[in-house]
Amino acid sequence: MIDIQAFFDPDTSTVSYLVADPSTSEAAIIDPVLDYEPHAAQLTTISVDAILKHARENGLRIQWVLETHAHADHLSAAHYVREKTGAKIGIGEKITQVQTLFKPMFAATDVCTDGGDFDALFANEDTFLIGSQQVHVLHTPGHTPACITYVIGDAAFVGDTLFMPDYGTARADFPGGDAATLYRSIRKILSLPEETRIFVGHDYLPEGRDTYAWETTVAEQRAKNTHIHDGVGETEFVEMRNARDATLSAPRLILPSLQVNIRAGNLPAREADGEVYLKIPVNRLKGGDATSPGSQG
Asked: Please, what are the domains in the chain?
């Protein structure tokens, strides 16, 4: 059985995971966060350094950095981890669609839309290894075209597709998102064995709960998920999801996040003055009054 250690970033409500094979000490980091303070445009590596420190102290070798999708709520530390450890970066093969969607928004002429910034592009039903542990990939789009779920033994890492049962499901209104597709992807996840442990990518601490949580099960989701428990059909879900999405503002860090994350966590190329700049395209996104951290669901 794999060892799983969760690291919660309260600034972006993101959960990153350090997943290790105890028999080989090979490990992967899933969805690492690069800290970004938008008012000062300041980058730090406090969050990901804590994961790397834990790995070193426990004799783990980071073999993979695994992205569940191109995040719109935090900057990825994947490139930083690759530089520090030599790990390969993996993501769903449909990242090429996401790169194609957002490259023109940021005039990102240095971005190739073939996924070449990543080391591995995973397709549905692909398998690979973390040490001796087999990872099974499920393509679970809807939140974004590139969303994938990593199934390792009895654990499924679902990214933003599902949240804790009392919070529900991901939004589907980003470019390339689709509520009906999201419904089918969630049903694919919920067709896994009922005892499968589900590890979510965020927790927003809904009203009535005072402790952050990120682990649930297929059985619990099917019985209790407020958006998509058993008995909720596709039409009902799509109507709910579209109505809810219309009320959501853009995530606070969507603009810096996307232009970094389509580059596999790397920053844009330096300009002629030797400095790095993130671009703020004006009036290109819905929900331009994004003054809160921004909910994904």
From this structure: 3-261 (3.60.15.10)
